[in-house]
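Marked as duplicate of an earlier ticket. Keeping the data here for the record.
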Amino acid sequence: MRRAAPPGSQPPPDRSLTTHPLDDDKLHEECGIFGIFGADDAAALTALGLHALQHRGQEAAGIVSYDGRQFHSHRGLGHVADNFESEDVVGRLKGRAAIGHNRYSTTGETVLRNVQPLFAELEFGGFAVGHNGNLTNARALRHELVKRGCIFQSTMDSEALIHLIATSGFATLIDRLVDALRQVVGAYSLVALSNSAMIGVRDPMGVRPLVLGELDGAPILASETCALDIIGARFTRDVEPGEIVVCGADGVESLMPFSPRKHRPCIFEYIYFSRPDSIIEEMSVYDIRKNIGRELSRESGVPADLVVPIPDSGTPAALGYAHEASIPFELGIIRNHYVGRTFIEPTQRIRDLGVKLKHNANRGELAGKRVILVDDSIVRGTTARKIVQMVRDAGATEVHMRIASPPTMHPCFYGIDTPSREELLAARMSVADMRDHIGVDTLAYISIDGLYRAAGEPGRDDGDPRFCDACFTGDYPVALHDLADGGPPAQLSLLAESA
């Protein structure tokens, strides 16, 4: 994951059309994890689970399995289908236990040594781990481990965790894992596989999601419930913040080795990251997104003829807005779902045309209409400007934009791909200035209290907020140790890039 750079640093180069066209104007979750223990075709089921979690990471995928005697691994760049469509590949991943990982990264090149799950032979046997999130003291940990003679093969902070386990003085794997986790600070969930168990861990504040499921008696760990649905598994419960779940031959054991902390799940999971058909913390992502649209309509309604989502992430909120405002909902913008990496060189002319690779105006619905566009967020604003112009060119007489999140004003250091603060449009401009910059007649965001109401809370209690909302408020619940030491890891020679 690319970490946000500190104030005064140079912005990264324009990546338009070099990875996923126009996706550089969205925030990105970093990865998805999945594991199953004690099931026939474990690797095949893991591949299906990763398919369901593809939205959480599109740069690389990997699976590690265990057959009771040895571990098997396949990791590759690209989508899950690029790596695990072949029966030969999946067939070589033998065993009744497997874990898998999808990765999203935008720092430098995505190379095979950074693809997870990572695997190492340790004193007690083999150990594989897949990780979602960031360790915010990764730089200090890595520096100390290198001084102690540890040799790193990747730039992952999850590799630091492996070294901490390997060098721990405790006897059992679980005690070593607890010892290692007590030395790390961050927002994370992880799934690990040893010779005798599959292990799931969620950080003490529960910022990153992790759920427990079951298929014919075989326990499953996954980032989201949609990964359970694809294989016909049953959702059991969310893994609790600070919980270690050990899935072995004797069943599922729960450990709570850390001091209780205030639960602060990431609110952007509900706004954008998670699939709308997932259930996170016993709440429907789809229902919350529709509620956000209803709140938007109440807070910032405007006369119009159509409510149009910017697909696909804006669709549930647009439905809620249209229902609350009694304005017709129409697909005024059609998305091309078959856009991936492109061979086209990012010349300025191609950048100017690039929006039509992914979105195209439905002229028959837009011409002569007052249109409300609904999207989940504005990051840099580059794509929003092009879409607004496209809608005007299709004949819309008015274009209003409503955003299903508060202004994104602060970088995230907890496992989300966020630009530097200087690149965040809302950190540089007022709403009025952004309105003029994007070219809309009106622009409005949902309020922070409105967002909390949409999630079933009466509002944001500034003294005791329910969610991690640092990207909106600057209220970082997990200490940013590496920042205090002089900058994010991406600015340092001892790079600690997370999974």
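See parent ticket for discussion. The chain has 19 helices and 23 strands.
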